[in-house]
Amino acid sequence: MFPVEPAYRLLVCLTALCAVSAVSLETEAAPSGSRERPLVVMLGSEPATLDPLLATDANGVRISHQLIFETLVRLDDNLEIVPGLARWQRLTPTHYRFRVTGGVRFHNGAALTAEDAVYTLRRFMAPEVASPYGGALREKIAAVQVLDDATFEVRLNAPYAAFLSDLILPVVSSQQGAIPTPWGDLNGSGPFRFESREVGKIVLVRNPDYRAPAGVARVVLKVVKDESTRLLKFRKGDVHLGINVLPLDKLVRFQRPPLKRKYRILEAPGLSYQYLGFNLADPVLSKHAVRKALAHAINVEALIEHRQKGHSTRATGLLAPGSPYADPALQPIPYDPQRARRLLDEAGFPQRDGRRFSLTYKTSTDRSAVIQARIIQSDLRGVGIELEVRSYEWATFYHDIRKGNFQLYSLRWIGVSDPAFLYELLHSRRTPPLGRNRGGYASPVVDALLERARLEPDVAKRRDLYRQVHRRVYADLPYLSLWHNNNVAIVSRALEGMRLHPSGGFEHLAAVRWSRP
Predict the structure, then answer these.
(1) Orientation of helix 444-453 relative to helix 459-476, angle to 10°
(2) Three-state SS for 203?
(3) Which CATH number is correct for 73-167, 3.40.640.10, 2.60.40.10, 1.10.645.10, 3.90.76.10?
(4) Which helix (H) or strand (E) holds 40?
(5) What's the gap between Cα 142 and its chain centre?
(6) CA distance 173 to 120
(7) Most exposed of 19, 86, 138, 203 (fewest Cβ within 10 Å)?
């Protein structure tokens, strides 16, 4: 499992890895045969926070935004924006009216109203909160106003084409619920309530007041950072569900006994995008010829064949194959070490005594991520580049990436469905903390295209603008696109109702139930 960052509706892809809890499944489970036994879900890393205003890593968003809280609007299985806690009416290109769903209550019993929705938007936008979602909202929203208990309005500074995708945001209560947790007040309205946290384990319990109560009474989210231990947990039957938690080369073991008798595999196309990030402020990596040489020197096809086991597709950009906003004519950069050597010579880095220069590659301690780094290290050594691989616990690694403290790194964005996210990722004004242009990419041409595209209401014109962005970024190489992954879930045969959302998240976890004692 590679480190990931969520990205749909400006989520962000990618959580400190904690030690495995010593508490066994037997100590957590209800008596044998009980349909109220806990559902044990494996996580590969612990969320950095469940604070709904601050959560950006994949597991933090999945637990906080999808299980404990509910969002104003949501992304359905067809990647369409649909009502969540609010329905909308577009009065003009810059004027929206929303009506919140009636009968919804927070976990402390308070009714959810339009006042809470407006309070939520203002909290996300408040500079002192320092929410990673706040910058985009402050830029787009001119005013928010409560009309009555059920209705509020939003006025925009301009007719942003993808504004609704910015509202896949959890609604928090304007009256704090006084439910203390390690991450502050988690007084949500979602299908599960926060119960407890200890090292390597988070426990949620069913919200009995939820309009469609969850199919299981309790969810135990267990963090298992070691891949060998993860597989062992499945072998012992200590875990009931895991989504994208095992290396793809291990999945074959679930196609034969004894694991086949305990589990089934669900697989579906996903939105994850694995990439290699460059720091463009670095004196070596700022040279386009060097980045192009790296792209030719790394055998991505071999990585996919040996590490992904056919569960991935080569990428040419952030958007998944089949997206109408991606240029289908672009082809992945071919593996060509001879071309890489020529480019490096031309860039002023001749090989002397088998070496040209050295770079540092940062990664997490996740075994698959480290193996990927070692393979890339070997490929680059073949063209005279020494690569020092440094692995860190997730929190340290992710902090460095967010701060721009790197030369090379690899992460995965997940859930990118609307190309509006490219503004956050690529525009020169969206460097941290305002956005996620962590490598410092700056192109006046791309800036202008992104600015036009985000305001363009015509579907065909918007598509053409984003395809131009795709072509330009493909040529500039601020990132090396590696692959798009399928989502793979390992599901206990005692469970039913499990579905995979394209984001690979927990959107359908509340529908899971025990099919037999």
Answers:
(1) 160
(2) strand
(3) 3.90.76.10
(4) strand 39-43
(5) 28
(6) 7
(7) 19
CA-to-CA distance for 105 and 192, rounded, in angstroms?
12
Radius of gyration of the chain (CA): 23
Under a CB-based contact definition with an 8 Å cutoff, are residues 379 and 298 in contact?
Answer: yes
Amino acid at 309: K
Top CATH class of 272-483 equals alpha beta
This prediction's pTM: 0.72
Write out the two tokens for 436.
């996620």
**Helix runs in 248-312, H state only:** 259-262, 288-297, 300-303
Task: Find tokens 């109560």 and name the residue.
Answer: 213
Domain 4-64+191-269+486-514 fold: D-Maltodextrin-Binding Protein; domain 2 (3.40.190)
Give me the sign of the Cα torsion angle 424, 425, 427, 429: positive
Residue 407: both structure tokens together: 């030369």
Yes or no: say if 55 and 12 are a contact pair by the CB < 8 Å rule: no
Residue with tokens 């190489």: 477
Q: 33: which 2 tokens? A: 């045969």
Q: Which residue type is seen at 486?
A: N
Per-residue pLDDT of the chain (517 residues; tens, 9 = 90+): 444 554 433 333 333 323 333 222 323 333 344 458 999 999 999 999 999 999 988 899 999 999 999 999 998 887 788 999 999 999 999 999 999 999 999 999 999 999 999 999 999 999 999 999 998 899 999 999 999 999 999 999 999 988 998 999 999 999 875 566 778 789 999 999 999 999 999 999 999 999 999 999 999 999 999 888 999 999 999 999 999 999 888 899 999 999 999 999 999 888 889 999 999 999 999 999 999 999 999 999 999 888 788 788 899 999 987 788 999 999 999 999 999 999 999 999 999 988 999 999 999 998 889 989 999 999 999 999 999 999 999 889 999 999 999 999 999 887 677 898 899 899 999 999 888 999 999 999 999 999 999 888 888 999 999 999 999 999 999 999 999 988 999 999 999 999 999 888 999 999 999 997 5
Residue from 276, 274, 245 nearest 401 by CA: 276
Q: What gap in Å lies between CA 120 and CA 466, rounded to an integer? A: 31
Two structure tokens written together for 145: 């106003």
Name the residue ranges covered by the structural domains of the chain: 4-64+191-269+486-514, 73-167, 272-483
Return phi, psi of residue 228, to 5°. -65, -40
- CB burial class (10 A; 0-12, 13-18, 19+) of residue 339? middle
Nearest to 390 by CA among 404, 410, 419: 410
In sequence order, what are the residues at sequence separation of 6 or more whose Cβ sits closer than 8 angstroms to the Cβ of residue 322?
none
- Give residue 365's identity as a one-letter amino acid code: T
Residue 440, φ and ψ in degrees, nearest 5 = 80, 30
Residue 389's nearest CA partner among 375, 405, 402, 403 is 375
Phi, psi at residue 53, to the nearest 5°? -80, -20
- Collapsing DSSP to helix, strand or coil, 359 comes out as strand
